[in-house]
User: Which sequence fits this backbone?
């Protein structure tokens, strides 16, 4: 019920924006959806395993999608598509070459299967990454180090 009310309010706010001749429309309808959708993304400096588990249950059941800016050490997570997170991060100053998509499996914390280096945004022939997998071991290691700092296993 709470989510439905939030969606209804976001849609209403977008639909009525600029409906008065005194207040012109400031944005397009699809931009409203993007702003509403981003409400659920979360940039984290620290997150507990319990929070990750809760996120995974509400979205995919056992997984949380995340993008990592390896230059800035930034992690943004909790969206349906890595591309949505990527766009959010680009809009907030990250560079395309520094962004990599991963999946986190909270139930696998502490094992090599906790981080899955798989995303469509990782296909980058210009960076010699020709698959969804993060092929460069140095980049994978940097991602692991960033995630290790961000995720609190307690």
Assistant:
């Amino acid at each position: 019920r709470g989510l439905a009310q939030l969606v209804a309010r976001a849609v209403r706010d977008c639909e009525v924006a600029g409906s008065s001749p005194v207040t012109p429309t400031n944005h397009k309808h699809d931009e409203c959806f993007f702003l509403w959708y981003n409400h659920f993304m979360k940039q984290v400096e620290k997150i507990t395993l319990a929070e990750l588990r809760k996120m995974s249950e509400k979205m995919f059941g056992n997984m949380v999608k995340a993008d990592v800016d390896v230059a800035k050490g930034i992690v943004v997570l909790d969206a349906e598509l890595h591309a949505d997170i990527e766009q959010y991060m680009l809009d907030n100053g990250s560079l395309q070459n520094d962004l990599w998509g991963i999946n986190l499996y909270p139930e696998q914390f502490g094992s090599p299967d906790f981080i899955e280096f798989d995303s469509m945004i990782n296909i980058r022939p210009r960076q010699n990454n020709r698959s969804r997998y993060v092929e460069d071991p140095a980049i994978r290691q940097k991602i692991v180090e960033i995630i290790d700092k961000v995720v609190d296993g307690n």
User: Anything to note?
Assistant: Helices lie at 2-16, 29-38, 49-59, 82-91, 137-150.
